[in-house]
Amino acid sequence: MRRIALNVTAAAAFGLLASSALAADKSVEMLHFWTSGGEAEGVRALKDALAAKGIEWKDAAVAGGTGANAYQVLRSRLAAGTPPSGAQMHIQETLAWANQGLLRDLSPLAEKDGWRKEILPAIQSNYEVDGKWVAVPVTMHRSNWLWYNSALLMKVGAEPPKSWDEFNAIADKLKAAGITPLALGGQNWQYGDLLESVIVAKGGADFYRKIVAGDLEAIKSDTMISVFDQIAKLRGYVDANSPGRDWNLATAMVINGEAAFQIMGDWAKAEFALAGKKPGIDYGCVASPGTDKDFIWLVDNFAFFNLNDKAAEEAQNTLAETVLDPKVQVDFAIKKGSIPVIDNVDATRLDACGQKSYEDRKNAATTNGVVPSIFHNAALPAAQTGVYLDVVSEFFVTPSMTSKDAVEAIVTGLGQL
Ligand code: GAL
Prior knowledge:
This protein is an alpha/beta fold. The protein has helices at 2-13, 19-24, 37-51, 68-79, 91-99, 107-113, 115-118, 121-124, 150-155, 164-176, 188-212, 216-219, 222-235, 247-255, 267-274, 310-323, 326-336, 352-366, 382-397, 403-415; strands at residues 27-32, 56-61, 86-89, 128-129, 132-133, 136-142, 145-149, 180-182, 259-263, 283-287, 295-304, 370-372. The chain has 20 helices and twelve strands. The strands form three sheets. Strands 1, 2, 3, 6, 11 and 12 form a six-stranded mixed beta sheet that branches. Strands 8-9-7-10 form a four-stranded mixed beta sheet. Bound molecules: beta-D-galactopyranose. Beta-D-galactopyranose is lined by residues 33-34, 39, 65-67, 141, 247, 267, 298, 300, 376. Part of a binding-protein-dependent transport system for a sugar. It is found in: Periplasm.
């Protein structure tokens, strides 16, 4: 916190600090990566709710799923001493910035508003560093979803697959009928999302926990080999234009009937909704194959920077209070495809997929099936996640690489950290 405060003071002395001007006109400048059509709808819901309280949301949006580009911009702005009021970030970034003392302590607000009673108990420990609340959770997503185009499945007489064997059989049928089975954006995190779903499917939640814990026996196991064998099979089910494609363009392929399936977190649902598609009619949402009882979660947080300005702090506090308002929690989740981070809400307002997610999380909690996402920075620090990202993306685009090679590359990569 001190470094930013010093930088901010220095910048102000040179007349460079825009933030105090922002604060004076009651606004918050938020750096985020919600730039797809559906994501922008979510931002609009927050903006409107905040505007109703007299605070303007100023956009500092940086495109790129999972926020890798946005985090880069944030690092530059912090280094330059010109932080935004706040930023969207996942759990691991929140912890990393907080450990450097860069985030505002929200404890007084948390205490005043009873966050401990409101926020889902299962995620609370991720927000406390040295006994201080370092961010406010905004919304919860699930990464292990399978989205499908109902008409295309009907065309080949298929039901949504419950296992990877079923998926492969349907994908072969689709391919034979000239239909691209899997819409995929060839970007490293999108390969990563496939990987975490397949790990849970093949090994179960406890096996996944062992992988997250760096258990070498689990990493080198036959189960992990079978995980990569399945990822290798998926290479044959994507179209030639997959490399580099953004996730929302892959979702559009399922929406438009150019591909049958996509494995993607529930932010994809916002794109279906924006296109006027109805769950259960035009498209379907089921857990990714073999993960029906499991819930791979991730949370988007807002963390705030110390701008040394009372009005700026008040605007930040108002935003934090706004996002935790039970009505705003649901309004935002409806637009964004996510579920609320508090329990005291009217979940019946969510659509069918949202309600399924809400129920699935509760049920998975009773069977110990709730696990944090690796590739959306809930489970592991950036360095470890980076090893998995490198290996799975190289593996996907290198057919000569065997599953054993992939597992060995993970062991080597982790060993070098
Ligand atoms: C996730 C993020 C979601 C969603 C998605 C695609 O990492 O938590 O809110 O936006 O990326 O951009």
